[in-house]
Design a protein that fits this description.
two-stranded antiparallel sheet
Amino acid sequence: MSSNKRQYKCKNNPNKFCYVCGEYIFVTPPNFTSTLQSAYRLYFYISPENLGESWTPNVLCNTCKTGLTMWMTGAKRYLSFDVPTIWRQPMCHEVDCYFCLTKIKQHGRHKTVEYAHVNSMSKPVPHSLSVKYPVCPKKNIVNRQNQVIMPNEKSELLASRLQERNLLKSQVKVTFYRSRQKYYAQYYIKKNNVCYCNDIYGLFKEFGEPYDPTEWRLFIDSN
C-alpha cells in the first residue's frame, strides 16, 4: 500500500469512508490490510486499485471487514452487493468529489449522512438472486482434494498451508493415521496376552543391521 501524502484536503477525510461499500464510518476504521485485500480479490474477482491515492480510501467499515473475514473462513456470510464501489480520480472538487460533496450533519450526539452522486465513484451493485454467491476458496480446495487421490502426507501439507493463510478455523486439527509399524509388526506375535518377537533375524534385516546371536540380553517390559 502506498504511503504517499494526499496532495489536497477534501472537506471530509477520505479515510472515514469504506473502500468496499463507500459508506461513512462513524468509528475508528480498520485498515485495508493485505489479507483483506486478498479476500476482496477472491470475493469480487477484481483487484483493489488506486490504494494510497489521495482520492481513494485505505480503510474498511467493520461490516465489510467482518463479511470478508467470515467468508474466508468458510462461513456462509456474504456481502449485500455483487459489485463493490469503484473509485475514479475526480475531475473537480466542487462538482465531482465524493468526499467533498457528501454532507455529514451533526445532530447533538448523532450524525446523519447525505451521500453524493458523482461520476468519480460508482456505488455498489446490490446482490441479485440471479447471481450466485462466490464460493470460499477453502471449499474449492477441499472439494478438489476430495475428488483427487492424494497421499496422506500431501493432504496434511495442504491443510497446513490453509491454516497458514487463515483459511481454516483455529480449532481445526489435521491428523491422519500413520502405519509405519506395519513393516515390523510381522516379526511379532501375541499369545496369551504376551507379545514377543518371533523372528529376530528378520527384524534386524528390516532395520538394516547385522544379527549376531551371541550378542543378546534379556529385556522385560513391565508396561
